[in-house]
Amino acid sequence: MLIHETIIDSIPVIALEGEVDLYNAKELKDILDSKIKTQQYEIVVNLAKVPFMDSSGIGTLVTAMYKLKKYHGNLKVCNVHGSVAKVFKLTGMESHLEVFADEAAAIRAIIKERDID
């Protein structure tokens, strides 16, 4: 798995590439935890180039989302497709994680929530 980081409108965007599973989910956890430690509480995770994600990857995203909520932050996920979308649906993760069609929509949602707060 490769991890690419960018900042768009002061929001960290973490784009993953490759499979996310038990063997590398810790890398994802570590990068999300590092964002939280540096007080970056709004994060977008782009799964456009993720063909497979097991329950450890999904668990990592859900755990990060709950950590961010403690700081009134948010985690948005975008570009979920194929088998990853099926796993999200089968496990009911769509009701826990906010999933957006693309990166721009996820960023707009964060900015809109800022304006409400």
Poorly predicted residue ranges? none
**Total domain modules:** 1
Report Rg. Answer: 13 Å
Overall morphology: globular
| Name given to the CATH homologous superfamily | STAS domain
Helix content: 40-55%
How would you describe this structure to a colleague?
Belongs to the anti-sigma-factor antagonist family. One of its GO terms (molecular function) is anti-sigma factor antagonist activity. By secondary structure, this protein is of the alpha/beta class. The protein has a single domain, classed as 2-Layer Sandwich (Transcription Regulator spoIIAA). It is 45% helix and 26% strand. The protein has 4 helices and 5 strands. The chain has a 5-stranded mixed β-sheet with strand order 1-2-3-4-5, sandwiched between helices. The longest helix has 16 residues. It is globular, with a radius of gyration of 13 Å.
What is this structure, in a nutshell?
The protein is an alpha/beta fold.
Keywords:
117 residues, 4 helices, Anti-sigma factor antagonist, single chain, 5 strands, STAS_dom_sf, Transcription Regulator spoIIAA, alpha/beta, anti-sigma factor antagonist activity, Anti-sigma_ant
